Fold Purinergic receptor.
Amino acid sequence: FAKYYRDLTGVEQRTLIKAYGIRFDIIVFGKAGKFDIIPTMINIGSGLALLGVATVLCDVIVLYCMKKRYYYREKKYKYVEDYEQGLGGETGQ
């Protein structure tokens, strides 16, 4: 491919480059804006809230709607024996 340019005297010149492979031309256009902390914090907060809702929704689907819900409930929650049954911290006094 070739790169065309004009030197200081105004004469048009080119540089030929022998290259192999695929050439990607990326064109970017748009409107630049000034950074503002308020919309940034709103976007971060709403993203975190969305992750929280997604976690709750996945838990509801897995623990109440799937065929293996008892298996997943057993793995998700740890059940503790009652203190009165003697498993809750006797020190041998």
In short: The CA atoms of residues 27 and 45 lie 32 Å apart. The mean pLDDT is 86.
